[in-house]
């Protein structure tokens, strides 16, 4: 989420985007995200970088809506050139009115869809269909038709999600991250050490929430009832040392496929 907010700032300052719309599960969350983005713009760091005082035309922290004139740097332009543009930043919660959103005769050109899905939207086929219709209808059709970018992020809380649908779609550029990388090392060792991850998993396992742990920590929706492997029988052991007297036998498994 932090990276997504910084991407909005980068898009406003170094690319020709002028109207980002931040969408989340609730209006309060999206308002807070828009406020964070605005605070990046209305900061000493922005002033030090640009030598410019952002001109606030109108702003509402309660509504998560801002209009301002800011300095930006078109790609390829001389950094000493002075370019200003008017930006609009708004926020919306899930299922809020989006259709017909226009500012300064323009539609949104950058959508950030952040954790808009949850257990409720994926709770049934009917609920998921309603959410997907809202996303593909009012949300996706609200953008500027000749130039737009959509960024979706969140946790894979279920197999029934547009996030998973887009991960598999050839029309989206996608990345999936888990707390543990394929080589077994932590994705973010400074925050989640192997010991912390192990304890976190064992805690979820003891509470019968292995599926929740995989969804939240690994972005892997997992249905224990449909698994051919009993996760409770998986044991974590230290890797063997070659030549150790504790090794009494070995085998090689070959898959002809």
Annotate the secondary structure layout:
Layout: H1 2-14, E1 20-24, H2 27-41, H3 44-50, E2 55-60, E3 65-72, E4 83-93, E5 110-114, H4 125-139, E6 149-153, H5 162-167, H6 194-206, H7 210-218
Parallel strand pairs: 1-4, 1-5, 5-6
Antiparallel strand pairs: 2-3, 3-4
Describe this structure in words.
The structure is a single chain. The protein is of the alpha/beta class and 257 residues long. It is built from seven helices and six strands; from the N terminus they run H-E-H-H-E-E-E-E-H-E-H-H-H. Strands 2-3-4-1-5-6 form a six-stranded mixed beta sheet, covered by helices on one side. Strand 2 and strand 3 form a beta hairpin. Helix 1 packs across helix 2. The longest helix is centred in the first third of the chain and has 15 residues. The protein is elongated. 21% of the residues are buried.
Task: Give a concise summary.
The chain is of the alpha/beta class. It has helices at 2-14, 27-41, 44-50, 125-139, 162-167, 194-206, 210-218, and strands spanning 20-24, 55-60, 65-72, 83-93, 110-114, 149-153.
């Amino acid at each position: 989420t932090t990276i997504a907010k910084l991407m909005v700032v980068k898009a406003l300052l170094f690319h020709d985007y002028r109207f980002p719309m931040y969408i989340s599960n609730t209006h309060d969350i999206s308002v807070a995200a828009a406020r964070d983005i605005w605070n990046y713009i209305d900061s000493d760091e922005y002033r030090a970088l640009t030598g410019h005082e952002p001109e606030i035309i109108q702003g509402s922290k309660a509504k998560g809506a801002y209009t301002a004139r800011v300095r930006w740097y078109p790609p390829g332009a001389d950094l000493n050139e002075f370019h200003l543009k008017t930006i609009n930043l708004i926020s919306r919660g899930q299922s809020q009115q989006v259709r017909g959103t226009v500012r300064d005769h323009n539609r949104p050109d950058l959508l950030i869809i952040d954790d808009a899905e949850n257990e409720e939207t994926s709770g049934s086929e009917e609920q998921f269909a309603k959410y997907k219709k809202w996303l593909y209808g009012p949300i996706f059709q609200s953008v500027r038709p000749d130039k737009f970018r959509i960024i979706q992020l969140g946790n894979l809380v279920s197999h029934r999600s547009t996030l998973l649908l887009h991960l598999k779609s050839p029309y989206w550029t996608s990345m999936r991250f888990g707390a543990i990388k394929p080589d077994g090392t932590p994705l973010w060792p400074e925050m989640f050490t192997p010991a912390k991850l192990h304890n976190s998993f064992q805690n979820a396992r003891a509470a019968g929430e292995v599926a929740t742990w995989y969804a939240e920590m690994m972005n892997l929706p997992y249905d224990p009832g449909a698994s051919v492997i009993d996760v409770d029988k998986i044991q974590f052991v230290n890797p063997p040392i070659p030549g150790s007297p504790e090794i009494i036998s070995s085998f090689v498994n070959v898959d002809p496929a």
